[in-house]
Design brief:
CATH architecture: 3-Layer(aba) Sandwich
Largest sheet: 8 strands, parallel
Number of domains: 1
Distance between the termini: 30 Å
Radius of gyration: 20 Å
Number of helices: 13
Bound molecules: ligand V1S, calcium ion, zinc ion
Order of helices and strands: EHEHHHHHHEHEHEEHEHEHH
Structural class: alpha/beta
Shape: globular
Number of strands: 8
CATH topology: Arginase, Chain A
CATH class: Alpha Beta
Oligomer: single chain
Helix content: 25-40%
Strand order of the largest sheet: 2-1-3-8-7-4-5-6
Length: about 400
């Protein structure tokens, strides 16, 4: 008989209140919306619930450059400086010259064409995102959980000294660095519609982390990296796996490819622990991504990885149709505790009004053209299998 898994869940009420700006697509409210559904559908009582703490500067500097972290931690938006000035407040601890230094902003990726805007509380937001991912790793290390979830994490683009693609601090890299203190081999899986470039880059030259990213690729799709033949360097040669795909991936083709690739990865790499970034911008009708996955299809990837009975850290990531993000991550929290959530959105959900006419968990999706032919997908799989033949374990 299968024993019940201990599932830990990290959440902090504050995280949903941060705001990237009116026109920005990244909306932290989706984390609070997910939480409300988890409570409303009654999954909460099957979880060990932890309040997320803020990661410390020292923890963040395990990966990021000190000057970059200092810059983020001292960041005050110009609108806040204006407000403080107008109200005659002294501005202690603010070196205005540094704050408004355009060169520095450019150097650190802040405000560059608005992907990573400077907003009030961006450092605390990043500390909360990272604190959950670090403590998720610690619970796994201490055998206090089999599965640990942090929907506020998964910000896979942040670089050592630069914000990138809506991400300021790479909570995933820091989580993996914690795991590497104890475990010899960590497997990182990324089903966000974007390439997990920041995580891949951080571990590109080591065989102690295998990174596997499934992503949309081509026609200037962000970030443009993650080609089939980017496979790692030095000791890390063959330990970076990329699955570049065209728009329109549907449940049938995606889940089959995912299972085939991951089955082979598990066979050859035999990781001690898996870190799974489950970005929900690979769902149908996302505002950025062009895949056509249903919530059930997305969830099948997670269920498949649960089947290997290897400790699992589950993180969030992208997702820009926020009602679908919360539906998906609440459903997946259910899957992790073996509950198959279904039916209407609870009427007392504080975000009920946002689900409008489609007040159900599973929304129908339209058929769109899958631009990946069976032949294309077979070729990709064949190439990856060839690469994995050269992995020594
Ligand atoms: N695609 C896309 C896209 N859209 C935006 C955007 C839209 C509205 C805004 F107010 C601000 C930005 N940015 C992008 C992408 C970045 C996608 C990041 C995905 C993050 C993740 O889901 O993987 C993980 C959380 N940026 C670009 O395409 C770059 C630009 C080339 C175009 C957009 N402008 C704003 C910046 C330069
Ligand atoms: Ca990905
Ligand atoms: Zn994404």
């Amino acid at each position: 008989m299968e024993t019940k898994k201990k599932v830990a869940y990290f959440y902090n009420n504050e995280i949903g209140n941060y705001n990237y700006g009116k026109l920005h697509l990244m909306n932290p409210k989706r984390i609070s919306m997910t939480h409300s559904l988890i409570v409303g559908y009654g999954v909460y009582k099957d979880l060990d619930v932890y309040t997320t703490r803020e990661a410390t500067k020292e923890e963040i500097m395990q990966f990021h450059d000190q000057d970059y972290v200092e810059y983020l931690s001292n960041y005050v938006s110009s609108s806040k400086i204006d407000f403080l000035k107008k109200n005659g407040c002294s501005i202690p601890l603010i070196d205005e010259d540094a704050k408004n230094d355009c060169d520095k902003k450019k150097q650190y990726g802040i405000d560059v064409q608005a992907d990573c805007p400077g907003f009030d509380g961006l450092y605390t937001f990043s500390q909360l995102s990272t604190g959950g991912s670090i403590d998720a790793a610690h619970l796994i290390i201490n055998n206090a959980a089999d599965i640990a979830i942090n929907w506020g994490g998964g910000l896979h683009h942040a670089k050592k000294g630069e914000a990138y693609g809506f991400c300021y601090v790479n909570d995933i890299v820091i989580c993996i660095l914690e795991l590497l203190k104890v475990f010899p081999r960590v497997l990182y899986i990324d089903i966000d519609v974007h390439h997990g470039d920041g995580v891949e880059e951080a571990f590109y030259t080591t065989n102690r982390v295998m990174t596997v990213s499934f992503h949309e690729f081509g026609e200037d799709f962000f970030p443009g990296t993650g080609g089939l033949n980017s496979n790692g360097e030095g000791l890390g040669k063959n330990y970076a796996v990329n699955v570049p795909l065209r728009p329109g991936m549907d449940d049938e083709s995606y889940v089959q490819l995912f299972k085939n690739v991951m089955n082979k990865v598990m066979e050859v790499y035999r990781p001690d622990v898996v870190v799974f970034q489950t970005g929900a911008d690979s769902l149908a009708n996302d505002k950025i991504g062009h895949f056509n996955l249903s919530i059930k299809g997305h969830g099948q990837c997670l269920t498949y990885m649960m089947g290997f009975n290897v400790p699992l850290v589950v993180l969030g990531g992208g997702g820009y149709t926020i009602q679908n993000v919360s539906r998906c991550w609440a459903f997946e929290t259910g899957l992790l505790v073996k509950k198959n959530l279904n039916g209407p959105i609870p009427v007392d959900d504080p975000f009920f009004h946002l689900y409008e006419k489609q007040n159900v968990l599973h929304v129908p999706i339209q058929q769109v053209e899958n631009k990946n032919s069976k032949e294309d997908l077979n070729k990709i799989q064949e190439e990856i299998f060839k690469q994995l033949k050269d992995v020594e374990c």
